[in-house]
Here is the input.
Amino acid sequence: MKIVVIDDDPTGSQTLHGCPLLLRWDVDVLRKGLRHSSPILFVLANTRALLPDAAAARNREICRSLQQALAAEGITPTDVQLVSRGDSTLRGHGVLEPQVIAEELGPFDATLHVPAFLEGGRTTVNGVHLLNGIPVHTTSFALDKLFGYSTSDLPSWLEEKSCGCISSATVQRLSLAQLDCAAEPVAQRGGEGMKALLSWLGALHDNQPIVVDAERPEQLAALGQAVEQLRESKRFLFRSAASLLNGLANLGPQPLAVEGLARLRRRDQFGVLLPGMVMVGSHVPLADVQLERLLEAPQCVGLELPVARLAQVLESIEADLLLADFEQQQLVQLVEVLKSGRTPVLFSSRGELGFPSAVAQLRFGNALAQLMGRLAGALLPQLGYLISKGGITTHTLLAEGLGLHLVQLEGQLLPGLSLVRALTDGGRQELPIVTFPGNLGDSQTLLDAWRLMEAR
Here is the structure.
């Protein structure tokens, strides 16, 4: 079975390894991804950076290209498991995107919502989604200006986000007890728990909305086994965070340990390690704290992109000329730090500007990410590695700044922190890029990632 994940930003592969991540979705690129030996394929849609209408249109475009690619490769619907990957803190188009996929590639018997990301402390208990044991609606993530919400009760959250189209009373819950019983070894009770789970899932129909509880990997593995056993007779669609994907794919341990991943850092023609660079575009409070800790390291030099000034430049009648000058000034500073043998840390000014509309906010955010991506692209020959924090920042870096169509996920540098490299047929040393979600880790994690890549 090939698992195809339509990911709303580049960080959904943060528990896996050895699989391709597609930054384009034309039929030829999709066919190349489908032919990859990995059982799982990611299409990086970057829809969290889009407003609802544009996000829906992009999902439709991907689905229609995917349908053509599957037909061209002779892959039938029963040989594909579709997943709409979203944020484990419930931001993004969590109802809209699976709805569009169901319209384009359905029918499905159920849509299962599985936001648990166990490696990051996100669990779901009795239908309530938690972050380190705290209801997620009480955290800063629920205050997101574009994707905020008022409840951690997932049936109620589905009702809220669907504007009442999904009634909380119609949502069923797959409980911890059901999954625990299904995960028991066959020798314990003759596999009765798995039989019960298969019966429960087998009775679903008409795209029933389901909320899935999860606290342990074994529970999601049991769900994955049940889905595999039912794939000839039932079709399920998932809206999930990253942890479910391990239960569906079962890839085993990654071939490169952390030290091996760090040794992918590039060298120059004389075998000398090239310097690294860190980019921080995320504006969640956790990112602010992590950036502050990283800049305490003497070898790291912070270079702030003044967003208020950038906003003025973009609004000017001479925006193109002024932006080129602004960009060149930033580039000169970055080159100077690299020449000194230290690590430049490029970050946008902390805090958020006020915008008259969500459209204006997203437009500016994308322009900022594009600028950071162009700066990194201009420095590419001089870099040994790159750490990119923030989903929109990272997607724009990969797709636009570096002009990549397809990257290979090598593995996890730290829990939830993926290291990717461009897929190439040549023998070149490809730049290792650590993709760092904005919402992940503790105050030390960004510093830890930098120290690992620097072998400190």
Q: What stands out?
A: The chain has two domains: 2-249, 258-453. DSSP finds 16 helices and 18 strands in the chain. The mean pLDDT is 91. The two ends are 41 Å apart (CA to CA).
